[in-house]
Amino acid sequence: MSNDVEQLDLKAASRWMSENVEGFEGPVTAEKFAVGQSNPTFRLTGPRQSYVLRRKPPGILLKSAHAVEREYRVQKALAGSGVPVPKMYALCEDDSVIGSAFYVMEDVKGRNINDPSMPDLAKDQRGAIIDEMGRVLAAIHDVDIEAVGLSDYGPTGNYYRRQIDRWSKQYRASETETITAMEELMSWLDANIPPDDGQRRLVHGDYRIDNMLFATDGPSCKAVLDWELSTIGHPYADLAGVIMQWQMPVGADGRGLAGIDRNAQGLPSDDDFVATYCARRGLDGIEGFGFYVAFCFFRMAAILQGVKKRALDGNASNPERALKVGAYVPSFAKGGLKSAHKT
Predict the structure, then answer these.
(1) 323 within 8 A of 308, measured Cβ to Cβ
(2) Residue-range domain boundaries for the chain
(3) Cα(241)–Cα(116) distance, integer angstroms
(4) Distance CA 223, CA 52 (A)
């Protein structure tokens, strides 16, 4: 966690919280989380309670990006459901308060795992956490969107057509150079979208182990975080996103499982993870799964290109890291093409 709080007017935020967050007591100190490239995130610590404040970044933003309002809405709607989320305290849509929209939520105490290989844990603990990750994913996709008031949280129609169009536009808006693999991947995806099978579910959009908080004394998930890309769409995109992440290199940068003997480490194979997910949701299997993984590589490449562009424009939450992760765009594009050829 960084002590750089230049992106937050703490006095203004405190004044607003005193009027809008029940039970708020100041003064508070602020620490900026080093993670969370898209929306700057801060822990605010007061005399009796701590909070998390998540805001849109300053500067000119791409249309529809950094939707903290949507993050707030979906997490508030999921309160009391089978999906663990932090308690939402208040949303501020008035840009004049601190310069952009923000929301305040519970500071969930839990364990954040950045490396899915979990080298510091025992073999049985690793398997239990990955199994919990799969359980929570199935729970997200089993949410009754009508019952929780999210039936209008995303448009109708073919989710992949909509997403490919959206992220192609976002990519073009932040493009800094021509990447041949990305051009090929975008063309392939455009021509190979599967027919709509009617599944219309809540999707997280960036479901990874490092966007979850786990109990400090066991595998139980305490909260799923970072709902910026959530919408009503097709659930296989979330599942494929997990598999995509595992294709990346091991370590803090790649956060993947490439080259690991998973069985020896107590970790499931891709096929086993997908099969367990299907069993939990009563599915017979997933045809043409390579498309979904290729799509996830494409979307992540587009996201990272946006991170890189913000760094070059001086608007990144963590400029040094933003440039570092932005350099992965060609690798993600190539990974997408590899998955496409497996379909």
Answers:
(1) yes
(2) 10-106, 111-340
(3) 13
(4) 13
The answer, yes or no, to whether residue 207 has pLDDT greater than 70, is yes
Could you report the per-residue pLDDT of 43-60, keeping only the tens digit for each? 999 999 999 999 988 765
The DSSP result for 100-112, as a single string, is: S-EEEEE----EE
Task: Give the global pTM.
Answer: 0.88
User: How many beta carbons lie within 10 A of that of residue 136, not counting itself?
Assistant: 20
The 10s digit of each residue's pLDDT in 263-303 is 999 999 999 999 999 999 999 999 999 999 999 999 999 99
Q: Which residues contact 8 (CB under 8 A, 6 or more apart)?
A: 30, 32, 40, 42, 53, 55, 98
The pLDDT tens digits of the residues spanning 149-165 come to: 999 999 999 999 999 99
Q: 10-106 with 111-340: one CATH topology?
A: no
Is 10-106 CATH 3.40.50.2300?
no
Q: What is the CATH code of the structural domain delimited by 111-340?
A: 3.90.1200.10
Which residues lie closer than 8 Å to 287 by C-beta, 6 or more apart?
A: none
